[in-house]
Specification:
Strand order of the largest sheet: 4-2-3-1-13
Number of helices: 9
Structural class: alpha+beta
Radius of gyration: 18 Å
CATH architecture of the largest domain: Orthogonal Bundle
Helix content: 25-40%
Length: 283
């Protein structure tokens, strides 16, 4: 491991300790920024994001494009938080697709990307989530990988690239998995009906306190989950679960009296603009 990679991973692990999290747990990056008193604001600008530095660290802020995909915004926020923690000064990050050639990266950009990956997708945590479900990561199906990406709140392809980079899967397996997309999983759940929107699959092994999503998105939940509130509408029922489309911003409770599973579903408006602290307010 080179010094840049080691530094990025060390900083991510240090932040986890400061937040009281272990090496396995998913991190909600917006909640982490709130804990660090770093304002995050969603803006309608065609970019990935921006870090605005200040001599007073408590007045530094992160701007995230409201126009980018839901999961992409999560990674971008972690990336910009890396600039803040490494004291890089103000930065603007333009649109960057996951399969772009990144050979032109400078050391600072590579450092914060490694930090973001280590923070959001800890290797030990990924391995544990597969083990909890009795899935072999080397032979797991695309839908199983997508389920794990939902646990960590990152994009499906982002998780695949990270697993390949860290040699959890082979290059051949990586190429095979990349043939699939979240839209293909959604179409399968909806039995061929063509719809678009951010999808999360939350199964019975999910143990986090919150699930974040957005209006117009889809949540596939276990059949035994009971919801308090009318923010979701059933659009499909399968053998293993129920698919809901998100209709309204707000926070609602999901609970399962059979196995004790419960969490809060936090919903923001589609392409929400404003401070991240208020993203779940009903409008």
């Amino acid at each position: 491991m080179d010094t840049i990679a080691a530094s990025g991973i060390k900083k991510a692990n240090s932040l986890r300790e400061d937040l009281g999290l272990n090496m396995f747990q998913p991190v909600n990056v917006y909640d982490a920024c709130a804990r660090l008193e770093v304002d995050v604001r969603f803006v309608s600008i065609n970019m990935e994001g921006m870090y605005v530095s200040s001599e007073d660290p408590t007045k530094s802020s992160i701007l995230i494009s409201a126009l980018r995909p839901f999961s992409r915004k999560v990674f971008t926020c972690a990336h910009e938080l890396g600039h803040h923690l490494f004291s890089h000064g103000s930065k603007i990050d333009m649109i960057q697709e996951e399969n772009d050639n990144k050979s032109a990266y400078n050391s600072e950009e590579r450092l914060v990307d490694i930090f973001a990956s280590a923070l959001l997708m800890p290797i030990a945590g990924i391995q544990l989530e597969f083990k909890k479900r009795n899935w072999n990561i080397k032979t797991a199906t695309p839908i199983q990988f997508f389920t794990i990406s939902s646990v960590f709140g990152v994009g499906y392809h982002t998780l695949i690239y990270n697993c390949s980079l860290n040699k959890l899967i082979s290059r051949t397996k990586c190429k095979e998995l990349l043939k699939y997309s979240p839209s293909s999983f959604l179409n399968k759940i909806l039995k061929g009906e063509k719809r678009t929107g951010h999808l999360k699959i939350i199964d019975s092994k999910y143990k986090e306190n919150t699930v974040d999503t957005e209006v117009s998105g889809f949540l596939y939940l276990p059949k035994d989950i009971e919801l308090e509130g009318g923010n979701l509408e059933i659009v499909a029922t399968t053998t293993h679960g129920v698919c809901y489309q998100v209709k309204q911003a707000g926070i609602l409770r999901a609970n399962n009296s059979i196995n004790g599973q419960n969490y809060f579903i936090r919903i923001q408006n589609f392409e929400y603009k404003g401070l991240s602290d208020y993203r779940h307010l009903e409008t």
